[in-house]
């Protein structure tokens, strides 16, 4: 997925602005690859909500609706913070260490991985944490809500400082979980989810 990562990097850096149409022929020339590779990369990035496919028209960089995204983030805050007590109740020392390992994998992706590696590691961390909740429908609903907004690739991690802040918040969540501090865990989760809205 080298081409997908190259496109993701160019979106993140502003080479391709939100809403901009991506012509496959231009991408082939830019990245020195064939139409099949470009199409596969665009389809993959559409699954990740970095680009959007419009049948019979092509692909454009995801253009988030600010109000809609803010409302969805607030729904996530409500759902994910409501799950904290059950997440803490279900956590064992082994589960906490597994979640801590997922936070470290995100750190490793920041240092040595691609943007797509960071994205996948971030999702794995959040699925692991919320997966401690005994209600699987909550995890399904939050996953579905994530699908209604732009991915972190396009917005949340627009700077190195932002991605490093996400990493610190992951570790803060694990520390709060290990301490059984529900109030602190709720606060960090809410702050973390609202990160894209911070200036």
Task: Please give a structural write-up.
The protein has 199 residues and is mainly alpha-helical. It folds into 2 domains: 2-61, Orthogonal Bundle (Arc Repressor Mutant, subunit A), CATH 1.10.10.10; 66-197, Four Helix Bundle (Hemerythrin (Met), subunit A), CATH 1.20.120. The protein is built from 10 helices and 3 strands, in the order αβααββααααααα. The radius of gyration is 18 Å and the shape is elongated. The two termini are 31 Å apart. The mean pLDDT is 89.
Q: What is the fold named in CATH at topology level of the largest domain?
A: Four Helix Bundle (Hemerythrin (Met), subunit A)
Largest sheet: 3 strands, antiparallel
Beta-strand share of residues: 5-15%
> Helices and strands, in N-to-C order?
HEHHEEHHHHHHH
CATH superfamily of the largest domain: GntR ligand-binding domain-like
Instruction: State the share of residues found in helices, binned by percent.
Output: 55-70%
Count of separate DSSP helical elements: 10
Mean pLDDT: 89
| Architecture per CATH nomenclature, i.e. the level-2 architecture of the largest domain | Up-down Bundle
Low confidence ranges: none
Distance between the termini: 31 Å
Spatial strand arrangement across the major sheet: 1-3-2
In terms of structural class, how would the helical and strand content be classed? mainly alpha
């Amino acid at each position: 997925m080298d081409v997908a990562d190259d496109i993701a990097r160019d979106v993140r850096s502003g080479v391709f602005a939100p809403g901009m149409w991506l012509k496959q022929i231009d991408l082939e020339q830019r990245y020195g690859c064939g139409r099949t590779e470009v199409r596969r990369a665009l389809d993959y990035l559409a699954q990740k909500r970095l680009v959007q496919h419009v049948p019979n028209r092509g692909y454009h960089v995801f253009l988030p609706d600010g109000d809609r995204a803010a409302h969805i983030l607030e729904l996530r805050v409500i759902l994910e913070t409501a799950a904290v007590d059950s997440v803490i109740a279900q956590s064992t020392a082994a589960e906490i260490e597994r979640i801590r390992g997922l936070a470290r994998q995100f750190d490793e992706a920041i240092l040595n991985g691609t943007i797509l590696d960071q994205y996948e590691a971030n999702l794995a961390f959040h699925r692991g944490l919320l997966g401690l909740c005994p209600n699987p429908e909550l995890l399904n609903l939050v996953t579905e809500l994530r699908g209604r907004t732009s991915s972190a690739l396009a917005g949340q991690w627009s700077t190195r400082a932002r991605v490093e802040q996400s990493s610190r918040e992951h570790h803060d969540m694990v520390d709060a979980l290990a301490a059984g501090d529900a109030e602190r865990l709720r606060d960090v989760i809410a702050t973390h989810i609202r990160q894209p809205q911070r200036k």
